[in-house]
Specification:
The chain has a domain of 185 residues: 2-Layer Sandwich (Antithrombin, Chain I, domain 2), CATH 3.30.497.10. Strands 1, 6, 7, 8, 9, 10, 13, 14 and 15 form a nine-stranded mixed beta sheet that branches. Strands 4-3-2-5-12-11-16 form a seven-stranded mixed beta sheet. The protein has 417 residues and is of the alpha/beta class. The two termini are 37 Å apart. The protein is elongated, with a radius of gyration of 22 Å.
Amino acid sequence: MCRLPASSILLLLSLASPSCPTSSPQAAMRHLHGSFAISLYGALIDGRPDGNLVVSPAGVAASLGLLQLGAKGATLAQLEGSLGYNVNDAQVRELLLQSQAETSNNSSRAAAWLRKTCVLLVQSGVKLVDGFTQNAAAWADASVVRGNFSQPGRGHVEAWPLQSGSSSGEMSGSGEAQQGAEAVAWWGHGLQMALVNTVAFRGVWQKQFHFSNTQNLPFILSDGTPVKVPMMYQTTEVSFGQFRTTSEQRYTVLELPYLGRSLSLQVVLPSERKTPLSSLEAQLSVRHMASWDVGLRRTKMDVFLPRFKVHNKFNLRSTLPVMGISDVFSPTAADFSGISAEESLYVSDAFHDVTIEVTEEGTKAAAATAMVLLKRSRAPVFKADRPFLFLLRHIQTGSILFMGRVTNPVDQSHTDI
């Protein structure tokens, strides 16, 4: 049986110590999820000081977990070091599958719609290790699909609507699986294995914003330029808190629950207009996020939040090495003998396609046309009229489904990184 890395073992032991009586293996896993999310987000924004961005840490972690099922030696050690756990460990897998099941159950209702695909595309003819495809299929929504990547494809990955949790099988003929094969073949001929992950979410607010209250209001960009954006508004009771970074920079956190209160959106905003969002991003830590759980208080407020949609497509080949995961992309160093003992497989690319949309209903909806003046109440005001961070998380497990920033709510461009 594979073991947790030493850092994770120490974490589990420390969380179970008398000084932390309420801790548990679930709390340890929550901490590891948060650490991975911050590490991934930090690697993505490195060298990118501006621009809308969204990533799904939970989606990427699930994909890396899939690779762990077939990795050996130093390749497995790098994946384990980045995630902080090994899915080959029975206890770890049980914790993760329980967390994923809770998230999926809450997101399968009409109130919240979460679609994830995690697919490992393997060249036809490659003989897989017995049991690997079964293990992969049992790992959340992951699946293994074969394809012929030796010929140039005609499609693009965004045209690949492969259904989540599709069973493994041979890619032949027409259909969604064939589109997936063509998409990856278009990027690189002759590859042996490619990992493709897609995530999309829509949710209904616990208390919806009214379209009639949305109006065009100024949003100040990072360079000080004002732009008019559709700004949603409501007076409601929210979870709100004021915090400080280690350098004494003040910031606020607003939490808006989705219907059912199992999922929530946290909006993180620098308190001072002159404080750049990048300064707050650089100091974000798991300790800060943990303080939000105990520091937020129910408060009646005037909430102004811009309507926004962010869509990014990433090739994580340049990002994951920053996090210590490099061997998987090396034809000579990668060890995926747990997938195929006869072939020297390596990951040619790791694509991640993610979309989040926030509107008055919380779900995808037509734009509001009514622009009215609002009668202000005397309640405290939270106004996201400048760049902010957001985290969409599952409250009970702490799993961060999405994490990103909005620097320009009306920028609808799809960013490829």
